[in-house]
Write a structure and sequence with these properties.
Its cofactor is Mg(2+). With about 425 residues, the chain is an alpha/beta fold. The chain is built from 16 helices and 12 strands. The chain has 2 domains: about 35-375, TIM Barrel, CATH 3.20.20.150; about 390-430, no CATH class. The longest helix is centred in the last third of the chain and has 28 residues, at about 350-375.
Length: about 425
């Protein structure tokens, strides 16, 4: 028996590039083989419970615009209704995964004991729905940024009682993720930062955050959780300056606190933009250090200075992102989570489904373009040619030499190099052949 929320919307089918059906896949065929692997297994799509079902359509200047049958989200009956509707949409889309924060799936109770009780109750209910649907949990996480208790941070909070509440909350969410067979656990430090240094002991907060994350890793091993622990970079918003600014900052943090072999990164397109980077830059940085875990796929409005979390629609951007993911060997436990929300004026159930259909199609187009570029090998050949000078024994030995020895050689051989073209426009034209 269905809820009626998606009445008139059938399971989405692949109809091919010429289809004019707004509720059909034109490019996403889950069984299509790309580089020897099913497309579904490459992309590993996930629906974000928070934006798709918990978000009510508000923004910084206005309240909710959505009227859903599970609103207000303040009791367990409506939490179960929300779960039923979520699994209906997973079935319509053929989504293999979903993701949640604890506050998305259970109502806020105001104290830890009641939050724990309702979390356990709703995860038991979700587990039953998972058994019936086959949809899996890509990752779980704790919302430690919305409630007023988190206004000065969670693990970085100056109040040790808040640190304790955060530790208990993460334990409960990691337990729930384990119970539901989640393949990862994510920590996003939305309030792990500061508004002003006038009231902030930056070193103490960083040390507390590092110790907290070590506790999470220790508990993961204690309970035998086989998934990956992920942290998610973001430069600002809601905090003025967040400690997990970008991929490079997070990698330095993980190394400082001895976590580089235990924790990987969950990278988001919108966060990369806020940090002044491209998405492929963040992916390439993480991949170069062996710390690429998973991605949140969305985009920002380039005319707005904040995180608008829109569904992806730019094939060249997406193609370059998947190019670096494929170069790194593809996802293992990670996947493509649509951390994206429909617009406040997009009120209907059809809008919610169509947004995911379009996002999945864009990712499929991007994946196929990325695979075609890798199979053609043009970018790799250009890289090899540009760095070919380092292939000689003399150049390689220079890295084990000293400044004195190198300077002597420059004088002896009268080395005076001439600049060589980087051929950027040619390479950009090359990419455009595939997208």
């Amino acid at each position: 028996m269905t809820s009626g929320f998606f009445d008139g919307i059938e399971k989405i089918q692949f109809e091919g590039a010429d289809s004019k059906n707004s509720l059909a896949f034109r490019h996403y065929d889950p069984d299509e083989i790309v580089m020897g692997k099913r497309m579904e297994d490459h992309l590993r799509f996930a629906v974000a419970w928070w934006h798709s079902f918990a978000w009510e359509g508000g923004d910084p200047f206005g309240g909710p615009t959505f009227e859903r049958p599970w609103h207000p989200q303040d009791d367990m009956g409506r939490a179960r209704m929300k779960a039923d509707i979520a699994f209906e949409m997973f079935e319509i889309l053929g989504q293999p995964f979903f993701c949640w924060h604890d506050a998305d799936i259970r109502p806020e109770q105001g104290n830890f004991a009641e939050n724990l009780k309702t979390l356990e109750e709703i995860t038991d209910y979700i587990a039953e729905r998972m058994q019936l649907s086959g949809t899996r949990l890509l990752w779980g996480t704790a919302n430690m940024f919305s409630h007023r208790r988190w206004m000065a941070g969670a693990s970085t909070n100056p109040d040790p009682d808040v640190f304790a509440f955060a530790a208990a909350t993460v334990k409960s969410c990691l337990d729930a993720t384990q119970k539901l067979g989640g393949e990862n656990y994510v920590l996003w430090g939305g309030r792990e930062g500061y508004e002003t240094l006038l009231n902030t002991d930056l070193k103490a907060e960083m040390d507390h955050m590092g110790r907290f994350l070590n506790m999470v890793v220790d508990y993961k091993h204690k309970i035998g959780f086989k998934g990956t622990i992920l942290v998610e970079p973001k430069p600002q918003e809601p905090s003025k300056h967040q400690y997990d600014y970008d991929a490079a900052t997070c990698i330095g943090f993980l190394r400082k606190y001895g976590l580089e072999n235990e924790v990987k990164l969950n990278l988001e397109q919108g966060h990369a933009i806020l940090a002044g980077h491209s998405f492929e830059h963040e992916i390439a940085v993480a991949a170069a250090e062996g710390m690429l875990g998973s991605i949140d796929m969305n985009r920002n409005d380039y005319q707005s200075g904040w995180d608008t979390d829109q569904f992806p629609n730019n094939t060249p951007e997406v193609a370059l992102a998947y190019y670096h993911i494929l170069k790194a060997g593809g996802f293992t436990t990670g996947g493509t989570n649509f951390d994206a929300k429909i617009r406040r004026q997009s009120l209907d159930a059809k809008d919610l489904v169509a947004a995911h259909v379009g996002g999945m199609d864009i990712c499929a187009r991007g994946l196929k373009a990325a695979a075609a570029m890798i199979e053609d090998g043009g970018l790799e050949r250009a890289l090899q040619e540009r760095y070919s000078g380092w292939d000689t024994p003399q150049a390689a030995s220079m890295l084990d030499s000293s400044l004195d020895e190198i300077a002597a050689r420059v004088l002896q051989e009268d080395i005076n190099p001439k600049p060589r073209s980087g051929r950027q426009e040619i390479l950009e034209n090359y990419v455009n052949r595939f997208v």
